[in-house]
TrEMBL record:
<dbReference type="Pfam" id="PF02618">
    <property type="entry name" value="YceG"/>
</dbReference>
<feature type="site" description="Important for catalytic activity">
    <location>
        <position position="259"/>
    </location>
</feature>
<dbReference type="GO" id="GO:0009252">
    <property type="term" value="P:peptidoglycan biosynthetic process"/>
</dbReference>
<protein>
    <recommendedName>
        <fullName>Endolytic murein transglycosylase</fullName>
        <ecNumber>4.2.2.29</ecNumber>
    </recommendedName>
</protein>
<keyword id="KW-1003">Cell membrane</keyword>
<dbReference type="GO" id="GO:0071555">
    <property type="term" value="P:cell wall organization"/>
</dbReference>
<dbReference type="GO" id="GO:0008932">
    <property type="term" value="F:lytic endotransglycosylase activity"/>
</dbReference>
<keyword id="KW-0812">Transmembrane</keyword>
<feature type="transmembrane region" description="Helical">
    <location>
        <begin position="27"/>
        <end position="50"/>
    </location>
</feature>
<comment type="similarity">
    <text>Belongs to the transglycosylase MltG family.</text>
</comment>
<comment type="function">
    <text>Functions as a peptidoglycan terminase that cleaves nascent peptidoglycan strands endolytically to terminate their elongation.</text>
</comment>
<keyword id="KW-0456">Lyase</keyword>
<keyword id="KW-0472">Membrane</keyword>
<dbReference type="InterPro" id="IPR003770">
    <property type="entry name" value="MLTG-like"/>
</dbReference>
<keyword id="KW-0961">Cell wall biogenesis/degradation</keyword>
<dbReference type="GO" id="GO:0005886">
    <property type="term" value="C:plasma membrane"/>
</dbReference>
<keyword id="KW-1133">Transmembrane helix</keyword>
């Protein structure tokens, strides 16, 4: 009995397909096993790595490592500092651990930590502020203070003569020395011939802790410049976008600081200044006149507006040569993010209200209502 060729061909193809299916299943199985092993190894390796990073760097090493946490340090900065000092194994995992545990409120200062400390022990130390030394002196510099006032505060806190402190703050050799260390914020702009005092506006308003009774003026100033640098670093991108140097930013921020009465006014005040500059108008802000006079007065008189000084924004258009006081973060942010308005004038009333107007007529009407004429 002869075989049907077509049936044989069909049977042959079926056998071939079954063999191919077996091969495919084997390949899929092998690949699946390989992937599973790879995933397991990666996951296992990751788990082991994270678990290791959460442990002390060296449980047997109790040698003290000095670690400084600067004022205003972010969690990211603190994590990097701890990793750089080899107190923790991984900054990113430490930062993640802090977020998961909802920890924070770390205290600035100088610490002595060890590689034997666990993460909870390190966190507890930084939260409680268990410092190498106790804070024995605090110097608070309020917002809007001028260099002469800051010198007075430093002198009072450190039992020095006001004249001696102020002299050092303006000593050319001292200025050039610290300019080298803080070249990113202290540029040649502070040495322009029209600048009254090079460090005016650069000593950030904050409370500064010190761990000895009589820190030198240099140590105090460097602490303040560290803070200024830290604050300005947060705005590097915006400064580049607006083509602001630190000097220009601090100069504008100081004007806003001196004119502002509350937070909500600052962005509008900034808009007035920018609008006037754009329109080619002088800023005409009284604090610059008083700064030029070197006086603190309740009222600016008409005769005061005639003072011959590059800081007098009634006589000279644009920004003054430099800051006229120190500015806080709110004023710095307002200088970088002014409100969009058409205002060209503003008027601060005796009750602290600020009235904004678009025209000189409107401004004069409000002035007649709220302000006694200057004499």
């Amino acid at each position: 009995m002869s075989k049907d060729p077509r049936k044989e061909m069909i049977m042959q193809k079926m056998i071939e397909r079954q063999n191919e299916a077996k091969v495919v299943r084997k390949i899929v199985l092998v690949i699946s096993i390989i992937l599973f092993i790879a995933i397991f190894l990666v996951a296992g390796g990751g788990y082991i790595y994270v678990k290791s990073a959460l442990k002390a760097v060296d449980p047997d090493n109790k040698k003290e490592i000095p670690v400084e946490i600067p004022i205003g340090s972010s969690i990211t900065t603190i994590s990097k500092i701890l990793e750089e000092n080899k107190v923790i194994k991984n900054a990113k995992i430490f930062k993640l651990y802090i977020k998961i545990k909802n920890e924070g409120d770390f205290q600035a200062g100088n610490y002595k930590l060890t590689q034997a400390m666990t993460l909870p022990e390190i966190i507890d130390t930084l939260k409680k502020g268990k410092l190498v030394e106790e804070v024995v002196l605090k110097i608070t510099i309020p917002e809007g203070k001028q260099l002469v006032q800051i010198a007075d505060i430093i002198a009072e806190k450190t039992n020095q003569k006001k004249e001696d402190v102020f002299k050092q703050l303006n000593d050319r050799a001292f200025i050039k020395e610290i300019m080298e260390e803080y070249s990113d914020i202290l540029t040649d702009e502070i040495l322009q011939k029209d600048i009254n005092y090079p460090l005016e506006g650069y000593l950030f308003p904050a409370t500064y802790p010190f761990y000895k009774e009589n820190p030198s003026t240099e140590e105090i100033i460097k602490s303040m410049l560290d803070k200024t640098r830290e604050v300005l670093n947060d705005y590097t991108g915006q400064m580049e976008e607006k083509e602001f140097t630190p000097h220009k930013l601090l100069t504008m921020a100081a004007l806003i600081e001196e004119e502002a009465t509350k937070k909500v006014d600052r962005e509008k005040i900034a808009s007035v200044f920018y609008n006037r500059i754009k329109a080619g108008m002088p800023l005409q802000t009284d604090p610059t006149v008083l700064y030029a006079l070197g006086e603190h007065k309740e009222r600016t008189l008409y005769k005061d507006l005639e003072v011959d000084s590059p800081y007098n924004t009634y006589k000279h258009k644009g920004l003054p040569p430099g800051p006229i006081a120190n500015a806080g973060k709110m004023s710095i942010e307002a200088a970088l993010n002014p409100e969009e308005t058409d205002f060209l004038y503003f008027l601060a009333t005796s009750n602290g209200e600020v009235i904004f107007t678009k025209t000189l007529d409107e401004h004069n009407q409000e002035k007649a209502k709220h302000i006694t004429n200057k004499k």
